């Protein structure tokens, strides 16, 4: 059997650990793992941002096949206990980019030390494959578009992006040192149900939905010309499953739609999804982050993982609005 054939892991019938599995992407992945027939899914989440409600529906379907352990990836004993006997580890636990900027030491402990423990213990336990969440933040403002995985990481100036790049480096080194199979996925701009609708760090889409619902125009700081490459959370979760199943190891993949949308275009698309005839309002520019353009090349994920995005922006935004209304009790 070749190294890449050995790295093809089914999810059906497998024992699986999902760190950060009560979060936006992790809980969506848990839904898919349960439905794909995983024998056991253990979620390790300290619930700093994740919510029990996010996995409530999966829990009903899975019964005792799904367990939530409220704990920290920095707790070596817990990580050791939960990686033991697992076939697969999906590592998603992390802090948001904004919190990393405000609390770099906490970010170091969580994203770097915590991830080290997960990788070290996965290798120790003989886990067959780790699928880890990386980020387009590793590129910073890219120099080439569409951006391929071969693009260098030296334009990143965020602690979060630095930690994610180091996470990828740790995975590579454990593959080289211990033969640990892994795939890292660089998500671009994520959106979809279970986005944080309440926290301090709520995303721009949530703030705009609140304004539009109140009859106020969505507010754009600056000219709105910066672009993003949005990918729906269901498609991201599916990429995780395919990354486990594909005969690939020791590699990273962009996960995006390869569709560039400006902030102003996004506001227009959201207004349409909310059947509103308001128009965006422009405010003074605020330097939130220096990344003014994102556009991914996703051909490697299509070729090696058999993954392609399936949910377009219009459909995805309508689903997001429906979820948000239900979540926040908006009736109109
Ligand atoms: N949302 C995005 O735009 C985006 C983009 C690129 C990459 N990512 C990455 O995808 C992964 C999942 O992101 P998400 O959007 O679902 O975020 P999220 O905040 O919804 O989920 C992260 C989960 O990890 C948990 N967590 C945080 N620190 C922990 C710790 N020390 N121990 C245990 N659990 C902990 C949180 O409670 C939360 O449930 C993360 O690694 C993130 O960096 C997200």
Automatic annotation (TrEMBL):
InterPro entries: Epimerase_deHydtase (IPR001509), Lipid_A_modif_metabolic_enz (IPR050177), NAD(P)-bd_dom_sf (IPR036291)
Coiled coil segments of this chain: none
Domain of life: Bacteria
NAD-dependent epimerase/dehydratase domain boundaries: 16-256
Gene3D superfamilies (UniProt xref): NAD(P)-binding Rossmann-like Domain (3.40.50.720), UDP-galactose 4-epimerase, domain 1 (3.90.25.10)
Pfam families, sorted: Epimerase
SUPFAM superfamilies associated with the record: NAD(P)-binding Rossmann-fold domains
Protein's recorded name: UDP-glucose 4-epimerase
Organism: Pseudonocardia oroxyli
